[in-house]
Structure formats: structure tokens, C-alpha cells
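Q: How would the C-alpha cells look for this protein?
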Amino acid sequence: MEIPEARWIIWLTLLVILVLVGTYVAMYFRGQAMGIVKEKADYLSDFRKLKDEGKLDEEEFGRLKQAIPKPPLLDDEDQVKDSN
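A: Here is the predicted structure in C-alpha cell form.
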């Protein structure tokens, strides 16, 4: 016994999954192209720990500190949202 509606449900589910995966992949590559990093990594604290352990000297730490990209400045709207 075959249910004709089941075929449409399967195809619709597959289409939704493909659209979601495609959107995720597109947003990932868009973020990479624009330089947006979603994961927040605190490199400075890692370098400071290495300096405290004696594995980095002051000059190397200074160069690494300057090489870390600064986060973009917040827009006025973002500052208003954060202050509330």
C-alpha cells in the first residue's frame, strides 16, 4: 500500500534541508569574505600567559599585541542597544 502524499512530504523535507544548508554555507563564505569571525578568541590572554611563563619576551609580546586585529567599532545603534 503506497501513500501518494508521502512522496511530496519527503521531497519537500529534502528541499527545506537543502535550502537551510545552502543558506548556512552562503553565510559562512560571506562572513569569511567580509572578515567576520563568529567565534570570539582571546588571543591576547593566551600570549600574556606565554609571556608570564617565560616563553615570550617583552618584544615578541609587543609585536603580537600589535598584530592582533582590533574589533570593528560599534555603530551608534549598537551602542544604544548595549547601554539599555
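The helical segments are 4-34, 43-52, 58-67, 76-83.

The mean pLDDT is 79.

Upvote if useful.
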